[in-house]
Specification:
Length: 332
């Protein structure tokens, strides 16, 4: 097969590939779907190993889960992925559950894949590899066995006869698996509150009033900024209490000349520890200055002169990641 018909990341067969200006658009089953890659990013692939490719592939899956239909791979993306940590076994198992949920429109739906390459379920195997940061199907099988032991899924194996003796694997989410997914989605699934962590500077007021606050309202939730709330408690205790009460956190990492805002990093990290979802944003001219541990997450970047675009992008991200809230106004 010609190189032009292969995935730039994995070298596997693709469904579609288009060259446009400074980047290539690809639809690759092995990479979990559509993505675009800048030509200068391809140069970074000269010394990239399979473990890094797996992290990059799962990053693409995460972007699509966040509502980015066709994620962009830039040179900086590849360099950041090279430095990023691999997912833990537990995180990979959680992603296996997330994939099964994405495929299970009815309770009891069975997902099938083979231990060896098989055209009947090849795309399913590719998707499982992509979602679980796996380099081989044996890793997926090991993760499935772990999830089975936790009673999250049913995992059945059917040995095939013949020369290949290919094994068919059947996996299905169980009620405990759905409960685990609900746990991962946050501690307050019924809350309408969205906690906003940001730099409380006059230069940020327009961003909150014209974009962040309205975007949260548009998605059906109520924004809370701790500096706008009357309270008699110690500020740190109040912040912790309000994050615990919130359905999700919007963390904007924009900062001034004095450097990064430690409070925003703390609040986002605390929310992560509670499994409260965090949506990351940052002014476009500052994104290259934020801490690397945060930069690996997909930030919505914004410009002060285009706050309407920021509002729409943030609202869409909230709806894609969290779902529409109960306060969302329905079109008549």
């Amino acid at each position: 097969m010609e190189e032009n018909n292969k995935c730039p990341i994995w070298g596997e067969a693709i469904e579609e590939k288009k060259q446009k200006e400074d980047r290539t658009y690809v639809n690759s089953p092995r990479a979990g779907g559509k993505y675009s890659i800048y030509h200068n990013a391809l140069l970074c692939f000269n010394d990239i190993d399979d473990a890094t490719k797996a992290r990059l592939t799962t990053w693409l899956v995460e972007q699509r889960r966040l509502g980015v239909e066709c994620p962009k791979i830039t040179k900086e993306t590849v360099e950041n992925i090279k430095k990023s940590r691999a997912l833990s076994v537990y995180e990979r198992a959680d992603n296996l559950l997330r994939y099964l949920e994405s495929q299970s429109h009815l309770l009891g739906h069975v997902v099938k894949f083979y231990a060896q390459d098989n055209s009947k379920a090849r795309d399913t195997a590719y998707q499982l590899l992509a979602w679980t940061e796996s380099r081989s199907i044996t890793e997926v099988i090991t993760l499935a066995e772990y999830c089975h032991e936790q009673n999250w899924i049913e995992h059945r194996k059917q040995e095939r006869t013949g020369a290949s003796k290919n094994t068919l694997h059947e996996v299905m989410l169980k009620p405990a698996g759905y409960a685990r997914l609900a746990e991962l989605q946050g501690t307050n699934p019924n809350s309408v509150q969205a906690f906003v962590a940001m730099w409380f500077d006059d230069s940020m007021e327009d961003a909150f009033v014209k974009a962040i606050g309205p975007a949260i309202h548009d998605a059906g939730y109520a924004p809370l900024r701790i500096d706008k709330k009357d309270h008699n408690n110690k500020i740190d205790d109040e912040i912790i209490a309000e994050i615990r009460r919130s359905r999700f956190v919007v963390a904007d990492f924009t900062h001034g000349e004095k450097g990064m805002r430690g409070g925003v990093y703390y609040e986002a990290g605390f929310a992560h520890g509670l499994n409260v979802p965090v949506i990351f944003t940052c002014r476009e001219d500052v994104i290259g200055k934020i801490h690397f541990d945060t930069r690996q997450y997909n930030h919505i970047t914004w410009k002060p002169e285009k706050l309407d675009e920021f509002r729409k992008a943030l609202s869409n991200r909230i709806s894609a990641t969290i779902g529409d809230g109960p306060l969302k106004k329905k079109d008549k």
